[in-house]
Amino acid sequence: MKNVYLFQCQYAIDIRGVTNYYLPYTIGCLYAYAHQFNDIRQEFNFPELFFKREDPKSVVDRMEDPHVCGFSNYVWNEQYHLELVKEIRAKFPNVIIVFGGPQVGQDNVDRNECDVWIQQEGEINFVQLLRDSLTDKPSAIYNGERIDNLVDLPSPYLTGVFDDIIAKHPDNMFSMTLETNRGCPFMCTFCDWGSLTYAKIKKHDLEKVVSELDWCIRNPIGYIWVADANFGVFKSRDIAIAQMLNYTCEHPDSNIDAVNVQYYKNSTETAVEIAKIIGKKYSRGITLSVQSMTTDVLEAIKRTNMDLNDLGDLIQKTRDAGVLAYSEVILPLPLETLDSWKTGLAELLECGQHTAIEMWKAQLLKNSEMTSPASKELYGIEQISVSDYSYYQSSGDWNDVPEQINIISATNTMSSEEVTEAYMYGWMIINLHTQGYMQILAKYCRNVLDVSYRQFYDKVFAELMEGDTPISDAFRNTMTVEQHYMQQGDLLELAPEAGNGAPEAGHFIAQRDLATVFKYKNTVYDIGEKIAKTFGDIDGTVVNANRHSLADITNMFTAPTGARIVEIDEATWEQGVNIKVNYDIDTWEPIHTSYLIKPSIPLDIIKQAGAFHHRRQGFKNLFIKT
Question: Are the C-beta atoms of residues 553 and 572 closer than 8 Å to each other?
Fold first, then answer.
């Protein structure tokens, strides 16, 4: 029999002292599909599924005369897989190297990094390749039609594909990929999802989904990633699946910590309903992704956003439902300018997005339209290859070769210097507004003094750039780190403020100062008050309310990935403080209002989360009317 080895290697993720791995769903699907055919079982043996970042030499030492080695490539494992290929070919020169996944292109074939490129869905193409390899040299490219009926695809969970992995790792927890449908009807130019799976969405059998969730309960699964591109697009079906997800999480034998869902683009009330069903304890919230608030940009990337009034209404609905809603923006996209970027962030605040904003650098994914030569020429896209943009380090991972990805460093509407300034404007909005330090003051200026959020934060930005405070120092240091990353492609080893973990991923640069801002929160309050007073008289009770915005945390530290480690006084955490304000801080009517101020995160959740709190999870207080 001929040996076939499959690879989908990823970073380990250490959470609260336990090492977690994603089960290699993609190669598990290939194995489960191939193994159902008699001729494949008779001719081929699959000795091991590789899913960890191990020393390549030790991996090759475990292999015996490989006939085919198949790799599922994406931005978090591409360079590691290429290193593995070098080692494998050095020892086994006649092996057939097969690449599949989003991060594969003709350039890999041209550079002889692989012998075969599977362009589309892998299951049928992979079986055909195996059969071809027995009688002839396989084709360089396999690009068969889409799979019409997903019922024909056996589940790697239910067929026992991962049983051996779990049995050999009794001290680890695992993350599960749950695929209830396949396909994406959108063609956003920055994304490689629609380009790979085409527009029509096809469904997995509902009974299969139920059975996989039942399997999840009986195995050490701590996290479910729902891989659908647009969960909620099939309203009644997806609501039913959400109910199953909640049942799975709440089952007494379940180990589930969280469920991550990719909601239907331009999320509707259905997404709010689904998040409520899954449960606040498990849901990571709703992504109200806008990518940009600029009409010309949205047209350039083939994206449409809902009307601003509708977005504001939806944000209010999430607030009323107690569901976390965060918005994602991408920098810099084609036709975005420095001014339109700043205005867009301010418009998000105008819509009521005061909870969380996530800022991503524009990635040039290999099979996205935005990466095409025509798109680069049209929009004057300049790029830089950066190391470890999205990186979760574990001491057990082999990291001698860093992962790399191409990101946009400038366009014909935004220079590299402007990109850095735009990023730091986002730093300010994320760290000072959505985290709560200046939010009440900014709202007061907006609603009482008729000062726009753009006006308010333009002045704050100037103060950060020119000021002589620890916050300005931290701001300028991070700007130096960001500028270096966008020019040199690696992270500058600039010592952070004590208590901050230096960022080990480009995506987390904006979060490197979370603990510093907390440490000097009184300075931040001073800056906010100084700026507010330039627009008019500031009510003293509003100033007092703003200084009570944050929960009474004893100390805070920042981990390298932006997670926060907090220390609190458990005895006083939920006692609360009573204050009086001359305004209703929800409507900003001039009404004397009494508030009980308590932390938004209950003590049991703080204790359950232990030392790990997500970078998006603010520590703002609740203002409860009394």
Answer: no
Q: What pLDDT digit, counting tens, does each position of 131-158 carry?
A: 999 988 898 999 877 888 898 899 999 9
Instruction: From residue 152, give the alpha-carbon distance in Å to each of 29, 32, 231, 486, 554.
Output: 11, 11, 22, 46, 56
319's enclosing H/E stretch is helix 308-321
Three-state DSSP state, 8: strand
pLDDT band at 496 (very low <50, low <70, confident <90, very high): low
Please state the length of the chain.
Answer: 626
32-62 tens-digit pLDDT: 999 999 999 999 999 999 999 999 999 999 9
Question: Which pLDDT score, from 0 to 100, does residue 493 have?
Answer: 74
Omega of the bond prior to 332 within 30 degrees of 0, cis?
yes
Is the distance from CB of 450 to CB of 350 less than 8 angstroms?
no
Cα(394)–Cα(173) distance, rounded to whole angstroms?
14
For the stretch 229-287, pLDDT in tens is 899 999 999 999 999 999 999 999 999 989 999 888 766 788 889 999 998 888 878 88
CA distance to 465, 494, 503, per residue, from 482 (Å): 15, 11, 11
Q: Is pLDDT larger for residue 11 or for residue 288? A: 11
Question: What is residue 137's predicted lDDT score, i.e. its pLDDT?
Answer: 84
- Residue 281, burial from CB neighbour count under 10 angstroms (0-12, 13-18, 19+): middle
Residue 219 has pLDDT above 70, yes or no: yes
* Contact criterion met (CB below 8 Å) for 357 and 430: yes
**Cα–Cα distance, 298 to 304 (Å, whole number):** 6
Answer with the residue of higher pLDDT: 492 or 410.
410
**What is the CA 317 to chain-centroid distance, rounded?**
23
Task: Give 226's strand partners.
Answer: 178, 261
pTM to 2 decimal places: 0.92
Q: Are 382 and 411 in contact (CB under 8 A)?
A: yes
Contact (Cβ atoms closer than 8 angstroms) between residue 285 and residue 323: yes
Q: What are the C-alpha distances in Å from 270 to residues 234, 236, 237, 239, 348?
A: 10, 9, 11, 8, 21
CA distance linking residue 211 with residue 176, whole number of Å: 13
Going through 247-348 in order, the beta strands assigned E by DSSP cover 258-263, 286-287, 325-331
Given a contact cutoff of 8 angstroms between Cβ atoms, the answer to whether 478 and 494 are in contact is no
- Amino acid residing at 622: L
The tokens 């004893």 sit on which residue? 554
Structure tokens at 135: 């009688």
Q: What sign does the dihedral 127-131-137-143 (CA atoms) show?
A: negative
pLDDT, one tens digit per residue, over 372-408 is 999 999 999 999 999 878 766 677 899 899 899 999 9
Question: Measuring CA to CA, how many Å separate 559 from each of 21, 359, 392, 478, 500?
Answer: 20, 18, 11, 16, 7
Helix 235-250 and helix 206-217, axial crossing angle in degrees, nearest 10: 10
In sequence order, what are the beta bridge partners of 35? none
Planar angle of CA 229, 235, 241, nearest 5 degrees:
75
The Cα-based distances of 400 to 89, 263, 311, 335, 370 in angstroms read 19, 36, 45, 38, 30
**DSSP 3-state assignment of 152?**
helix
